[in-house]
């Protein structure tokens, strides 16, 4: 049986008594693009640095194609791991041309020129080969850093918040562009980011991390539709968790009575994940809310609506709406699209 390309098994990293990474496990297959996603301090960068060999691990193991890279008693040096790394600050040599930056780690190889030519073409930088880093935009410099990391033909590429210095729109588009480049080069990769738009644009699998733990390793679709924890539900996408309680076999909420698909017992407290597209406006509905803010986004408008409990929910309305702050509106919960019920 062919081993996984990367296996991270119950990985832990401690700084003194503090567990920066706590029993994290996941696998990456050949050709897969993965992402570690979470807020600052969640352990995602420490996990990446442990895979790269820059951090010693205190428990668990890291294997590349079945060969151990790290255990608590053993560690292969970073330069012998056959991994590529792209850093947040690009780390380009300012005195070298773009061609020479890409060739830096492989200049002694017989096929160096052919490799660099191929990577210049792959990253759309052929016309800029003789320029210097300061003559390029931030997005172009990031592609140079990517090409340089790909030049030694690593088995796995590690990307540490590589787009964080760019504006939001460019981050997302460059994440898609890098994903396309990696697919063309047939290289697997792990991206670390705190930006879910980047993660969704880039990854086949995403691991949501919080307080050193991996809460869920799943597809972007499943993270959005079926988050396993309240933290993931709040962190991924827009939405809120509204409280409910099982009464007479149904879940009673502020927005109406819902089915009890998991047969939770009577009086059990439930949280129901409600996304903006789970709600619609309905004048005759007995469930009311007051508009507190509206955000026009071209093809749709987001309405932020306060329920009688003061909890604010978000509703997606196609196109424009005449509703303004302070207006009351009826709400209907589209229960058929609800899938996430979290037990307190």
Neighbour order of strands in the largest sheet = 7-8-9-3-10-11
Structural class: alpha+beta
Calculate the mean pLDDT score and round it: 92
User: What's the assembly state of these chains?
Assistant: single chain
Number of continuous helical runs: 8
Distance between the termini: 41 Å
Query: What is the beta-strand fraction?
Result: 35-45%
The whole-angstrom Rg is 24 Å
Series of H and E elements: EEEHEEEEHHHEHEHEEHHEEEEEEEEEE
Number of strands: 21
Instruction: Tell me, briefly, the overall form.
Output: globular
Low-pLDDT residue intervals, each spanning 5 or more residues: none
The major pleated sheet works out as: 6 strands, mixed
Helix content: 10-25%
Pfam families: ABC_tran (PF00005), TOBE_2 (PF08402)
Domain ABC transporter: 6-236
Keywords: ATP-binding, Cell inner membrane, Cell membrane, Ion transport, Iron, Iron transport, Membrane, Nucleotide-binding, Translocase, Transport
Protein name: ABC transporter ATP-binding protein
What this model shows, in words?
The chain is an alpha+beta fold. The protein has helices spanning 44-52, 98-103, 112-122, 138-150, 168-185, 196-202, 220-225, 230-235, and strands spanning 6-15, 18-28, 33-37, 59-64, 67-71, 74-75, 83-86, 156-160, 188-193, 205-210, 213-218, 240-247, 250-253, 256-258, 269-274, 279-281, 288-296, 300-306, 312-318, 328-333, 341-343. The strands form 4 sheets. It has a 6-stranded mixed β-sheet with strand order 7-8-9-3-10-11, with helices on both faces. A 5-stranded antiparallel β-sheet has the order 2-1-4-5-6, covered by helices on one side. The chain has a 5-stranded antiparallel β-sheet with strand order 14-13-12-15-21. Strand 4 and strand 5 form a beta hairpin. Helix 3 packs antiparallel against helix 4 (138-150), helix 4 (138-150) runs parallel beside helix 5 (168-185) and helix 5 (168-185) runs parallel beside helix 6 (196-202). The two termini are 41 Å apart.
């Amino acid at each position: 049986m062919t081993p996984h390309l990367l296996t991270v098994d119950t990985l832990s990293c401690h700084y003194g008594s503090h567990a920066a990474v706590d029993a994290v496990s996941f696998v990456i297959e050949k050709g897969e693009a993965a992402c570690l996603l979470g807020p600052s301090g969640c352990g995602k960068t420490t996990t990446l640095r442990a895979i790269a060999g820059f951090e010693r691990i205190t428990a668990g193991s890291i294997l590349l194609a079945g060969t151990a890279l790290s255990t608590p008693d053993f560690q292969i040096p970073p330069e012998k791991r056959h991994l590529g790394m792209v850093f947040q600050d690009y780390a380009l040599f300012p005195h070298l041309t773009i061609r020479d930056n890409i060739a830096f780690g492989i200049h002694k190889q017989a096929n160096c020129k052919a490799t660099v030519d191929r990577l210049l073409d792959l990253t759309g930088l052929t016309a800029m080969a003789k320029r210097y880093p300061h003559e390029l935009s931030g997005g172009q410099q990031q592609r140079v850093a990517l090409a340089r990391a790909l030049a030694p033909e690593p088995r796995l590429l590690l990307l540490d918040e590589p787009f964080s210095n760019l504006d939001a729109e460019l981050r997302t588009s460059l994440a898609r562009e890098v994903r396309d480049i990696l697919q063309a080069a047939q290289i697997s990769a792990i991206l670390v980011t705190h930006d879910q738009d980047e993660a969704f644009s880039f990854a086949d699998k995403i691991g949501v991390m919080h307080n050193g733990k991996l809460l869920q390793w799943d597809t972007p679709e499943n993270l959005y539709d079926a988050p396993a924890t309240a933290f993931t539900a709040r962190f991924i996408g827009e939405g809120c968790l509204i409280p409910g309680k099982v009464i007479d076999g149904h879940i009673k909420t502020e927005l109406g009575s819902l089915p009890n698909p998991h047969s939770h017992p009577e009086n059990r407290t439930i949280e129901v994940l409600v996304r903006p597209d789970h709600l619609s406006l309905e004048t005759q509905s007995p469930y009311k809310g007051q508009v507190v803010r509206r955000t026009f986004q071209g093809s749709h408008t987001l309405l932020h609506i306060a329920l009688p409990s003061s909890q604010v929910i978000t509703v997606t309305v196609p196109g424009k709406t005449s509703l303004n702050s302070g207006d009351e509106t009826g709400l209907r919960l589209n229960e058929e699209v609800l899938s996430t019920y979290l037990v307190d």
